[in-house]
């Protein structure tokens, strides 16, 4: 499961961290900020629809290979096709089409594999398992950026991410032991569509968990969207692409350590919410460092601080979510609804970030805004009643 997560996040973050900004700048030139906001925003809309939809279909899939394996397989193969399209894209519309295909297909795989956590892991071990899932996400960012840079140019970087995506799925597909469902699910279009609405009044803990993840991810999305441009235009490092990799590598190591340790600690003391609150405080502090210490040493310190906070949040927030899922027969669908809280910030963040950078105070205002938003999101976790 961790390897599939790793591959999917390589497919996401290799392009997002390095390849899409490079490709967008090469195609559109001076309008790079707006163009990047457009392509990432459209892709996020696709992600918002694809993850819960394919998750719901995964919950209902009857095959001798199980519920999850067919979607991990199809998502990985079609995602590789989308990355291949991006590798040869020379027009902006081709970038948009390729990225949307990647978002749709890889989210199908992600929805299925994420549901394996509540499918198979006992509640008392879920923060620890969430830390391992977070480790896959974190290393995915590092490996994706590393492949993008190491293989030189957008074509080689995309193809390297393609190969990695396919290979990372193989161990799970061979050894998943995914059990098929025997009962034939009753399907009616109306109830199927209505099932995606989870009432905040009937499931308030789920609603607050969704809101917590949404707001924290919005702050994080605002802070990370323009990292390459921030290092180029504000910090003025000599090698911004290399700088991105160093920052991501440092942050990823810290996130990995923090996620595993915080997950273990949370499971041991059987408390969740206090970890999320402190994670938000730490991430806000990192954003303020970027706002007021715009030097290369400042960026490195902020990367470490952010890693501590975000790693703890990844592990413990996922454990909270698995404990408040309202439908035992629809884990992938409900987790897909949760994923909207991951994807919707990718739509909103460019809308907020682009005018802030261009007209409303630049990167200082951007990072202050990100810190405040993320802190507000973390504090919202106190409203969850069914989790300590």
UniProtKB/TrEMBL annotation:
Keywords of the record: Membrane, Transmembrane, Transmembrane helix
Membrane-spanning parts: 36-57, 69-86, 92-115, 127-151, 157-174, 210-231, 243-262, 274-293, 299-325, 337-360, 366-384
GO molecular function: transmembrane transporter activity
Primary location: membrane
Gene Ontology annotations for the cellular component aspect, listed alphabetically: plasma membrane
Gene3D superfamilies in the cross-refs: MFS general substrate transporter like domains
Cleaved signal peptide residues: none
Compartments in which it is found: Cell membrane
Record keyword Metal-binding present: no
Pfam families: MFS_1 (PF07690)
The keyword Cell division belongs to this UniProt entry's keyword annotation: no
Domain named Major facilitator superfamily (MFS) profile: residues: 205-388
Highest taxon in the source lineage: Bacteria
Membrane-related topology note: Multi-pass membrane protein
PANTHER family assigned to the protein according to its UniProt record, in alphabetical order: MAJOR FACILITATOR SUPERFAMILY (MFS) PROFILE DOMAIN-CONTAINING PROTEIN (PTHR23528:SF1), PTHR23528
Entry protein name: MFS transporter
Organism: Aeromicrobium senzhongii
Lineage per the UniProt record: Bacteria, Bacillati, Actinomycetota, Actinomycetes, Propionibacteriales
